[in-house]
Write a structure and sequence with these properties.
89 residues, mainly beta, Ubiquitin-like (UB roll), five-stranded mixed sheet, two-stranded antiparallel sheet, 1 helix
């Protein structure tokens, strides 16, 4: 859940997560924007939802795919940018 009071943020931007437009703020990570939409970043082999774990780039639980190129990145390390297209697949 994103804090809203007493926080200075960059300007509001939009990114696309799994085909859905989501508000983000300049200066925040993809992970921060994605958590606002859903805490689940992926499903494990049993179909159970998995979320962020370390939030510092060591565990890989927040790995997502940037479209259209298909580059896999850790969402906790990548700043949200206008028009980014991201999938959890």
């Amino acid at each position: 859940m994103r804090l809203h009071h007493g926080i200075d943020r960059g300007r509001r931007i939009q990114i696309i997560i799994d085909g859905e437009r989501v508000d983000a703020f300049e200066g925040e990570t993809l992970a921060a924007a994605m958590i606002e939409q859903s805490p689940a970043f992926r499903r494990d082999t049993k179909g159970m939802a998995r979320g962020m774990f370390c939030n510092m780039g060591t565990c890989g639980e927040c790995t997502v795919t940037l479209l259209p190129g298909g580059r896999r990145v850790r969402a906790c390390l990548v700043p949200a940018q206008v028009g980014m297209d991201v999938t959890r697949d």
